[in-house]
Design brief:
Blueprint: E1 2-7, H1 11-21, E2 27-33, H2 36-46, E3 50-54, H3 67-78, E4 83-88, H4 93-102, E5 106-109, H5 114-125, E6 130-131, H6 133-142, H7 149-158, H8 164-171, H9 175-189, H10 194-204
Parallel strand pairs: 1-2, 1-3, 3-4, 4-5, 5-6
Helix pairs in contact: 2-3, 4-6, 7-8, 7-9, 7-10, 8-9, 9-10
Length: about 210
């Protein structure tokens, strides 16, 4: 029996997935979580064989699009015997690369059928890997993230259209340094302003 932890902040999706997977003779859902923090706590409690994690979950210090990846990193350190799969409705190339770098052994969209999903769980539990072919092709064509961690951070702070002074306060930087990072990011991305930079970086999953 393969013991599963399901983590997704959308309750309807999580409970529906739990019901479908429980129909499989060799799969058992032993825990469910609605946030990244809860997922780590439930993993510690139930010690599942496979953790199925939504990419976008709140938790681990702050709401973040990287919630599922944060859980992968935490479980890799605390429960290395637990294999992780990321599921997402936002299959952008940068997210795939970050998930694999964090230690996830599976990455697939929420559009897959329950039958395929169950087979993916069996595959990674047996030591294999699975990446959705279409997402893999997009990741290869997108190339590597050209932004430094600091440039990406500043772009994230700029995503809601905040003025330079407010971005500087959020990032604990001077306004001049913020302008330099935004200018550098735009140069690397080939964009003309920070709004275009944010949009392009988000499209590729770099922020």
């Amino acid at each position: 029996m393969i013991r599963l932890l399901l983590a997704d902040d959308e309750n309807l999706i999580r409970t529906a997935l739990a019901a479908l997977l429980s129909l499989e003779d060799d799969l058992e859902v032993v825990g469910q979580a609605a946030s990244a923090d809860e997922a780590v706590a439930m993993a510690r409690l139930h010690r599942p064989d496979v953790a199925v994690l939504d990419l976008q979950m709140p938790g681990l210090a702050a709401p973040s699009a990287m919630g599922g990846i944060g859980v992968v990193e935490a479980l890799r350190k605390e429960l290395p015997e637990c294999t992780c799969v990321i599921v997402t409705g936002h299959g952008r190339p940068g997210y795939l690369k970050q998930a694999l770098a964090a230690g996830a052994r599976g990455f697939l969209p929420k559009t897959v059928s329950a039958h395929v999903f169950a087979d993916v769980i069996r595959t990674i539990h047996a030591g294999g890997r699975y990446v959705d072919p279409e997402l893999a092709a997009e990741a290869i064509s997108a190339g590597d993230n050209p932004l430094t961690p600091r440039e990406a951070e500043v772009l994230e702070h700029a995503a809601d259209g905040a003025p330079i002074e407010q971005i500087a306060q959020r990032a604990s930087l001077s306004p001049g340094t913020v302008r330099n990072y935004l200018s550098s990011a735009a140069g690397k991305l080939g964009t003309t302003n920070r709004h275009e930079s944010v949009q392009l970086a988000r499209t590729h999953g770099w922020i």
